[in-house]
Design brief:
- The structure is a single chain.
- With 261 residues, the protein is an alpha/beta fold.
- It is built from eight helices and ten strands.
- The chain has a single domain (35-241, 249-260), classed as 3-Layer(aba) Sandwich (Rossmann fold).
- The chain has helices at residues 45-53, 92-102, 107-120, 136-149, 166-183, 194-200, 234-249, 255-260, and strands at 3-14, 17-29, 34-39, 60-65, 68-69, 77-80, 154-158, 186-191, 203-208, 213-219.
- It binds adenosine-5'-diphosphate (ADP) and magnesium ion.
- Adenosine-5'-diphosphate binds at residues 12, 14, 19, 21, 39, 41-47.
Amino acid sequence: MHLEVTHLYKQFPTARGSITALKDINLHVEDGEFVCAVGASGSGKSTLLRLIAGLEMPTAGEVRVDGVLVTGPGADRGMVFQNYTLYPWMTVADNVGFGLKLQGVSKQQRREQVSYYLDVVGLTKFADVLPKQLSGGMKQRVAIARALASRPKILLMDEPFGALDVQTKETMQQFLLQLWQRTNISILMITHDVEEAVFLAQRLYVLSAHPGTVEREIVINLPLERDHQIRRQPAFQHYREEVLDLLRSKPAEPIDSLLIL
Ligand SMILES: Nc1ncnc2c1ncn2[C@@H]1O[C@H](COP(=O)(O)OP(=O)(O)O)[C@@H](O)[C@H]1O
Ligand SMILES: [Mg+2]
């Protein structure tokens, strides 16, 4: 799997003229790589992911998966969003199998794939319950299982742990790292959480806002096997400060626009 984003621009028309949400974004994700893009709110993170997912079309530039131009959504890219997007009236198993059903996968094969991925996310025992009976972290594990069930080449994650409390968030980050190592899937995650990005990524892109653009690319030279102890290491702190300094140098909102409020 190879994801390539080249000279990507996105403008949105508004009543007061057009907003440039993304300006000349260039990035790539290699096979089996875990890449994060980190930026303040308004830096165009969700827009970027929606363009890669094919949910929206770029104003200029292109997105390619294994050399093929993205012109719409496809099973090669699995999405996980911040807000729980499970269907509340469907059981956990039905939620995980829903995409497969749409793809016309047979009932028998669906059952096998659903039970496999429920096992991967450790929710086998919860197959028949409704989402409302699950905690936030468990709901996101269902969403991850649902995304994986269609066997995508890459997992696109838009602040998937943004709504979780700190402890659950750390558990989920550790879980995602293990899942990534076991499945060898490529992951592109976007987040505003600098520590999360440094903890998870092999490589990360720092985005600045207004317009959203890539400020710097940083290779995270930390061991692949990571646990939360690593946050205390000087190397980790160094990466964290480097990213924070970049984000500080370009405030997300101009001060005068804040003064109007
Ligand atoms: N559909 C849209 N119409 C108009 N402006 C939009 C739309 N979607 C996003 N934007 C603008 O694009 C910028 C980036 O938004 P977004 O991608 O949501 O950033 P982030 O996810 O980093 O917070 C913001 O200024 C936002 O207001
Ligand atoms: Mg967003």
